[in-house]
Amino acid sequence: MIKVSVVGAKGRMGSHVVEAVNGAADMQLALTLDAADDLAAITPENTDVTVEFTVPSVSLGNVLKLAAQGVDVVVGTTGWTEEKLAKVREAIANGPRPDAQKVFIAPNFAISAVLADYFAVKAAKYFESAEVIELHHPTKVDAPSGTAIHTAQGIAAARKAAGLGPMPDATETDGGSRGQVVDGVHVHAVRLRGLNAHEEVLFGNAGEQLTIRADSFDRGSFMPGVLLAVRKLASDAPAGLTVGLDKFLDL
Of 7, 129, 154, 234, which has the fewest beta carbons less than 10 angstroms from its beta carbon? Predict the structure, then answer.
């Protein structure tokens, strides 16, 4: 049995994680913590893997503290930057289990979103233009989403490897309507009541267009990915920091 603790257990995502862990035949719920609770209660003795689903403003601190305590962590909170990831790597190196500590961060746990991201990277070198649109519920606190940023970074890296130059865009003044630019790729964020989590990647050449879209209509769609990550960390995932559920899929 994999002993799983959940940080952010009373939140929108955390409550689903608690339910999913309770429903998994190979897992046992250890501790459920929320904002007012002390993370020191989670130790390698009572927890095999901790799932952290909180908010970007506190997630880094939570992960650093858990790493310092030698606890393996699956992180679903978004808002990660290269600077924050570097701090996690440093915490692992300076922690009590530098050669065995595992931290996993996923921009998205939905299998559909992970595959859309993978397909987008594969398609990027074949198209002159690419843009990303992400659409979420209005209570999401960050924009653009971590998934969209990750997708844009992957597209940009694929284009660079293929020797492609900047994308065509004659816009001179846009008042912000062209979205955030991530490594040369425009990313647009929509916040609308009735939506859950959606991403659309648009590719264009003269006379043709390819659209890759992933839709998660319910938060339950993220749970198979969360449980997969927990099982991998409890078994054969490599030590150190791993980013992206695609690393645990047979792609």
Answer: 129
Domain hosting residue 94, numbered range:
2-105+220-248
Active-site residue, 140 included: yes
Catalytic-role residue among 65, 84, 140, 247: 140
Residues belonging to the binding site for NAD(+) are 8-13, 37, 76-78, 106-109
Q: What CATH number should be reported for the domain holding residue 186?
A: 3.30.360.10
Is residue 115 domain-shared with residue 201, that is, in the same domain? yes
Q: Is the dihedral of CA 158, 162, 165, 171 positive or negative?
A: negative
* Residues of each annotated binding site for (S)-2,3,4,5-tetrahydrodipicolinate: 137, 146-147
Q: How many CB atoms lie within 10 A of CB 118?
A: 18
Catalytic residue among 136, 150, 186, 188: 136
Same-domain status, 76 and 37: yes
What is the pTM (predicted TM-score) of this model? Answer: 0.83
**Among 209, 201, 192, 230, which residue's Cα sits nearest to residue 30?**
230
Handedness of CA 243, 245, 248, 251 (dihedral sign): negative
Could you read off the pLDDT tens digit of each residue along the chain, which spans 251 residues?
999 999 999 998 999 999 999 999 999 999 999 988 999 999 999 999 999 999 999 999 999 999 999 999 999 998 888 999 999 999 999 999 999 999 999 988 999 999 999 999 999 999 999 999 999 999 998 899 988 998 999 999 999 999 999 999 999 888 889 999 999 999 999 999 999 999 999 999 999 999 999 999 998 899 999 999 999 999 999 999 999 999 999 88
Task: Read off the CATH number of the domain in which 40 is found.
Answer: 3.40.50.720
> Under the phi-then-psi rule, with left for phi > 0, alpha for psi from -120 to 50, and beta for the rest, what region is 218?
beta
Q: Say yes or no: 95 and 19 in one domain.
A: yes
